[in-house]
Amino acid sequence: MQEWEKGRKLLIMDIKRLFMLSLIGIFLLTFFSQSVNAFEFDNVKNYNAETKTVDVRNSILGIPFLQLDQVADITLDTPLENYVGLGYQKVAQVTVNNYGQYSNALSKIDFYNIKRGMEKIDRQIDYKYLTLENVTYDVYGEDCKTILKNGSCSWGVVGQNSYEKEI
């Protein structure tokens, strides 16, 4: 076998190897690109004191000016200073708008004591999902569309009202 044929075969094998590695690299890049956005260590949180809302965004390495897509909005629905008695009861209520990247947007919440220099507090928290049911009821009153024999209005259902009830 001549020297140039050996070199040609080696070149073809190198090209095939490079092609296969490129295909594997493209596959891995495509496969893992969705999970790279879901890293939690690089999320950036922005707090708006006026609306009591935390805006959580993906970021590149946690750098604030390299913010990407929105992960969640978390709004405090109860007062900032909410006085609660002793015992097991609702302490705070938040509304979470999760933009589909996390199945549990509240997987980790840290609590801090502001009066003690932002000292971290260890608390056991029970999460409960608020579910509302629309309850409709009849409103009774005088119905003057139908006049009785004595000249007065009849009494009956004059409309309906509804309200939302926690279940």
Q: Strand tally, please?
A: 8
Strand content: 35-45%
Q: Give the count of structural domains.
A: 3
- The rounded Rg comes to 32 Å
Low confidence ranges: none
Largest sheet: 4 strands, antiparallel
Distance from N terminus to C terminus (CA atoms, Å) equals: 85 Å
The number of helical runs is: 1
Order of secondary-structure elements: HEEEEEEEE
Question: Structural class, from secondary structure content?
Answer: alpha+beta
Describe the structure.
The chain is an alpha+beta fold. The chain folds into 3 domains: 1-36; 44-121, no CATH class; 132-166, no CATH class. Helix content is 21%, strand content 38%. The protein has one helix spanning 3-37; strands at 44-48, 53-59, 67-76, 94-98, 111-113, 119-121, 132-147, 153-166. The strands form 3 sheets. Strands 1-2-3-4 form a 4-stranded antiparallel beta sheet, with no helix packed on it. The protein is elongated and about 125 Å long. The mean pLDDT is 78.
Give a brief description.
Helices cover 21% and strands 38% of the residues. With 167 residues, the protein is an alpha+beta fold.
SSE inventory with pairings:
Blueprint: H1 3-37, E1 44-48, E2 53-59, E3 67-76, E4 94-98, E5 111-113, E6 119-121, E7 132-147, E8 153-166
Antiparallel strand pairs: 1-2, 2-3, 3-4, 5-6, 7-8
Quick tags:
alpha+beta; 38% strand
